[in-house]
Amino acid sequence: MVNHAVMQQPATPKSTARETFANSPWLYRMPRHPPFGAAMRIVADCHEPAAIINRLRATKSVDGSAVEVEAGALDVGDYLIGPGAAVERKAGGDFVASLLDGRFAAQAAKLRATYDTVVWIIEGNPYDGHVSLEPTVITGAISHLAIVEGATVLRTQTPQETADLLLSLAKRLQDGRTDLALRPNKPADPRLLAEYIVSGLPGIGRRKARALLRHFGSVRAVFAANAAEIAAIRGFGRKSAEAIRTALDTAYPEEPN
Fold it and tell me: What is d(CA 80, CA 28) in angstroms, rounded to the nearest whole number?
């Protein structure tokens, strides 16, 4: 974020901050978890780099949700990514400069006083010799944000990475998503899709998924096979076969209230 004179103003109460953005009603009046596919919205400070804002605007959708990006003058923070949530972005050199000119402490306190959720993104390497400052001072500032200010501190290397991270953060905040996509997108090719499905079983990678599919002929047949039939295949043992059957046969538990 550039050196805004506004950072010298007193902290804005959280209730006042909500009123300040009344022209963006989604920000504080939207449901905490909007329906799947609802538009995902981000407000960017107009002083932020065009490379980031343009990349955000060029992204038409994220996981089925349309992306709407609004630019305006923000008193506190650089990006608003959800109800009561803001991001402060600093290039590595500016992060260090803010320590030297006194902006850092004021900005951190004002962000904490204004928003419920605060994320700092440090873009680039703050240790890269921008100015003569001991690395321990920079490390201390980062730990101060995490421990004292209660903020989340994340690192990116480029404006493009920053934009992608902002989209991911906004998506999780605005749709209440708590799962983590550990597997790649589902393939369209039927053969690869079958391998993808079977490789989701415990202890099964792509090689073993192929072995099961070659032996039984289809995903349905793999899922219908009993433990003895699976254990009879070369490379599969009794424990592996029982783990697969347990995963397939265990009832899906209800979520706790």
Answer: 10
